[in-house]
Design goal:
The protein is α/β, with parallel strands linked by helices. The chain folds into 2 domains: about 130 residues, Thiamin pyrophosphokinase, catalytic domain (Rossmann fold), CATH 3.40.50; about 80 residues, Thiamin pyrophosphokinase, thiamin-binding domain (Jelly Rolls, Sandwich). It has 5 helices and 13 strands. The longest helix is centred in the middle third of the chain and has 11 residues.
Amino acid sequence: MSRAVVFAAGEVYDIMRVRRLVGRPDLVICADAGLRHARALGLRPDVLLGDFDSLPADVLAAARVEGVPILQVPVEKDETDTELALAEAVRRGAGEVLLVGGSGTRLDHTVSNLLLLPTCPVPVTMTDGKNIARVLRGGEWLEVPREAGSFLSLVPLSPAVTGVTVTGVHWPLSGATLRWGESLGVSNRIVDRCARVSVGEGYLLVVQAWD
């Protein structure tokens, strides 16, 4: 299965954890100033995409000189650069995507990027090094390994997520329903080798986070 990494223009707070998650991807796509994260990891993009409102002109010019394929899109458009980059990854055959730098000081961008996860036709993991976020759809399950200092939080992305079962944690759940406006699934701790999360119906955001 082809594995892609999309670098967005948000923040990365733990570059070493991101490096471990990135590994050796089959495809690297940078959305605008997300290029700086790829550079920090020593990765050459397969495509640099965006309207380039946040990438310095000299950095863009240097990428052109290096022969990086560039796909420039209009500033006035209906999709963010990150959404277009995810779509490009899928178009190029990615079976799964790691989205790096999708969060940061712009809450609107962070929420918008999180809501791209359940709509993407392939599994997407979103990280900034301090958070690893994935979405489970009805009937899916996920194992989350225990790591020192981490919390496990479950947040419903649909009005109600039913049949939520979590094992290997301090506060297990069995067939629970998580609803908007309730914090039942927030800040759990993994106590076994890994936690196992499964969902009956709905969209569930699964976040492993570090302070």
